[in-house]
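Feature request, filed as a ticket because there's no other form

It would be nice if the structure record came with a short human-readable summary line next to the tokens. Right now we just get the raw output. Example of a typical job, pasted below so the devs can see what we mean:
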Amino acid sequence: MIALIIVIVVLVVLALAVVGMYNGLVRLRNKVDEAWNQIDVELQRRHDLIGNLVETVKGYAAHERGTLEEVVRARGAAMAGGQSPAQQAETEGLLTQALGRLIAVAEAYPDLKANQNFLALQNELSSTEDRIASARRYYNANVRELNTKVDTVPSNIVAGIAHVSKREYFEARGESRDPVRVDFGSSGPAVPPPQSYTGTELPRAQAAEPAPQVEGADGTDPAAPDPGPTTPQGS
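Raw output as currently delivered:
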């Protein structure tokens, strides 16, 4: 009788442990899905802002057709449905590169840089990039926790029964680990302008050379100080 009670208690404990692991896996899976939905919302906002930014730039720099079309193509690829997180990160990275080239082009148009709509779109896009980065960190943290549960014993057994599988991280392939970050602070490293002679001042190399000395007709140096009238000896 006692042995039967012990067996029943052990089975109940195991059942509770399995239920607890199952519920924990389901909660983690739901958190990952929720985190990805938040990223998707911010990405859609990003795509809308980039579309408006392209239209604004087009009004001032319509002849920059190659750069504009590149951004439009990259935006279309990023907006394509059915992408996994890894694929989405890759297309977003390509869009970020194209957007960086568009911003660099805009630097050459002072009227565009001063346009209030352009400035507002830049600020909104920069804020959206920050929210995407925050949402990405939250998503990846939950994915890491879920994948750890799926890989480790005994929760991996329950994961197989519950059909809970590992998820992909949302991060860039290659050197950069932040696929959706755009820095509007500068368009690149400052390059010093080439030295040129404007006619208002001598180039430094010429200014450092001493002026040539020309002797007068009597063989004296005209730049030398006048010694004054000479007095005959004995006067």
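Something like this underneath would help us a lot:
The chain has one domain: 2-186.
Residues 174-225, 227-235 have pLDDT under 50 and may be disordered.
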